[in-house]
Amino acid sequence: MSRLDLAARTAALENAAHEGDGRLAPELLASARAVADRARERGGLSADHTVVALAGATGSGKSSVFNAVAGADIAVPGVRRPTTSHALAAYWGQGAGPLLDWLDVPRRHEMSGPVPSGDATGLVLLDLPDHDSVVVDHRLRAEALVARADLLVWVVDPQKYADAALHEGFLKPLAGRADVVVVVLNQIDRLKAGEARAMLTDLERLVAADGLEGARVLGLSATTGQGMDDLRALLTKAARRREAATARLVADERAAASALVEACGSQPPARAGERARAALLQSLEDAAGVPTVVEAVRAAARRDARAATGWPLTRWIGRLRRDPLRRLGLRDTERRAPRGREDLVRTSLPAPAPAVRSAAASGVRQYVQKVTDGVSDAWALAARARAQRGIDDLPDALDRAVASTRLEAGRRPLWWRAVNVLQWTLIAAVGAGLAWLAVLFLFSYLRLPAPPTPVWTVPAPSGQGTDVVFPGAPPGPSDGLGVDPFQIPWPTLLVLGGLLLGVLVALVSRVLAAVGARRRAAAARRRLRASVAEVADRLVRLPVGEELAALGRCRAAATIAAS
């Protein structure tokens, strides 16, 4: 693993922790950040030194092992417990000062000669305080150095090699770091050969159960020197390869990143949001009163069409009915707000019933539940919290959305104008016919000779055409079957024809108006649905989507760091 790889892994872990802010457990994020900080700090210190920490319980003999590895009596094993109160360092090679300062190890010895098993320039050997010390400060120092060491050598004795405090408190938290953990069974000179083999086998089993399968397990005796060459050779090799520091940091970051991946849960299906959107929009449309508005648009469109195309003599009856859109405050001509203050526009829609509002809130929650299916509880709760803030703002936002939606057509249909002109033309014809008849009545009443009046002749069934004749003119020829043609004076024709055609045109226009009203209502529904969708996106889908996007970024970064 190169330094560049470690730097990229550290950056990915930091990004994952950043994206998890406010969503994942604070202690989990703090642990991940601590690992990343430790990697950056260790990466800025000596890369030529390998820090090997000897850790163990009181009486395990780790100070004796320390002296045996160093080849000198540096650590003085004590009789009283706790024997080791402060860490002690023995190092080979120059330039270890800043590293030991970072480790906070003031007691240090520079070794002039090589480790007895060979040249180990760059080795920094630490004798840690007892991890089971009754002094809290000692335990804290040990834990801090265990977290910062490059290679950990746990020294156990035959009496306490299976101690729960060791396995539960220290080895299990190191799961996945088998490459940088060595477990040493000291004092095997006190055991028979068969007992030593059996105990080493049992120790290997316990270490594997701690998640450290593959970790090296050695048996030795610091007193007799049995097995010490194997330990010295192992440490010398680690010092020469100079890979333990990077391996430890990579292992720590992988463990922290894996915990973040697990805490994030699985990514929801890509199309889960689209499938849940339809149900969300339906519940919000009901809460916004969209069905009421659409029906008002349909009724208003029929009313407007009848007012423009109905029979002029009865149009006034329709105007007595209250305008459905005006009653809701949704007439385009009445919805005016100062420029830049469109948020002041409101409708006169009745407040949605509690059941409807509850259904809308339930629709939002169901949407969140569907799009966060499989997500960790922490992240799902964060998404629900964002959606809940949107629920509180929904009533006003939906009312403004309906109020700002254009519900009426931009201009009246051309056929309205044409029919209106036709209707008034027919009324004019009726008026002309009535006036003509009034003149003829006046002449008859005054006993004056009637002016000539044209007549529209309706031919008999086998007739050949229509003739216009004047009073006093000789009758036209018979059709040869003895049936006289039917004759209607033009004034009467104008009155009756105008009335009949006006009613017929009004009836046809009513049918066309119903079709047009349905189309206008459908167009209004589409625009209202778009307005409601904008509110749903802004208050629900976008906030929840941001949470899921953050989840995706957190998972992606943590997965990179854990790879």
UniProtKB/TrEMBL annotation:
Database matches in SUPFAM superfamilies: P-loop containing nucleoside triphosphate hydrolases
Superkingdom is Bacteria
Domain G as annotated: residue spans:
52-168
Bilayer-spanning residue ranges? 421-446, 493-517
Q: InterPro entries attached here?
A: GTP-bd, GTPase_Era-like, P-loop_NTPase
Do the record's keywords include Transmembrane helix? yes
What keywords is this UniProt entry annotated with? Membrane, Transmembrane, Transmembrane helix
Q: What is this protein called?
A: 50S ribosome-binding GTPase
